[in-house]
Amino acid sequence: MNVFIFIYSVCIMLVFFAAAILSLAAYLVSERKSFLPQVSLFVFYIIELAGIFGNEWLSQNISFSGEFYYEISSPVLRVITGTGILASLWLMMLRMLDIHDRSTAIIPPAIYALASILVLTVMPHGQMRQFAFYTLRQAFAAFILIFAFMKWAASKDGAYRERLGKHHVNFIILCLLVLLVFFEDLWVIILAPMPDPNVSSLTLYLSERNFSENILMIFIAYHCIRKALNLLKLRFSQPQSEISQEGDLAHHIADSMPSFAKANKLSARESEVLALVLAGKDNRAIASELFLSEGTIKSHVHNIMKKTGTGSREELKKSFWAA
Asked: What single DSSP character describes residue 292?
């Protein structure tokens, strides 16, 4: 086996293994279900990569005919791992969009799985079958991104739009990477000539590898690792707030509060007050919840605005979600 491919395969699997372990650790510490799709995403992707790597390893000393170049190895496993990967990405996006409808979570991945099975059973063996099978993945990824954009565009909630809008650079990068994955498959499977199987058996699995997809997944892994490490660091250095808040908004506030408080030098009490301000509560309600006087809350809010350079609660909310 080519030494570069061997080292490359091992290294990227280690990256995804680290992402899975850290995401699991973050879930166990925080008990936030939003980390579970991250764990399943990297577990399924590691299984898929291990399957490709194993086939390459076992076939390195075996002579193959060129007809195997457009074959889909372990098709049942590919359907399972592909569905698992895309379902995990879909759930991650739904969590970000604050959508918890069960049918919305289940139906699109189920359609993908059925479409993949249909391609495998109906289309004749060859390059078009292989291309269609793998292009379904890019189509589903594109659907996820389009769905997220439409959800953002349709929302009238300023805080919601601010929170999602701050990810616009990552969104654009994801769109470009998905296109790159598609064009790599188009080139390798459809446009480029089939490699000579007599030169190296490794080339027979080139059509089942997609280096652009690896880059896409590494990009996602980077952000998942960063998110998990930030949460673990927070839990190590600061106890959880004693204020009991439930719901998506409270979780998003809790995720962003540590970095915002540190950047603006907010005290622990000011962070608690700010969290309740962001939740839409007035000074009287905040005073009642924290068992403080209304005048004290007013003073805290004034200090928060002074430190953050904002002049109103609306400006403060925009500053927080844009940070």
From this structure: -
Could you tell me which of 98, 108, 254, 79 has the C-alpha nearest to residue 164?
Answer: 98
Query: H helices within 34-126, ranges in order?
Result: 36-58, 75-96, 102-122
Whole-number Å distance between alpha carbons of 90 and 112: 12
Within this chain, do residues 314 and 195 fall inside the same structural domain, yes or no?
A: no
pLDDT tens-place string over residues 252-299: 777 777 778 888 888 888 888 888 888 888 888 888 888 888 888 889
- Domain holding 213, by residue range, is 3-223
- Of 179, 195, 322, which Cα lies nearest the Cα of 264? 322
The per-residue pLDDT for range 68-98, each reduced to its tens digit, is: 678 888 899 999 999 999 999 999 999 999 8
Count: domains in the chain: 2
Closest CA to 41 of 17, 70, 66: 17
Do residues 148 and 178 make contact, with C-beta atoms less than 8 angstroms apart?
A: no
246 in the same domain as 219: no
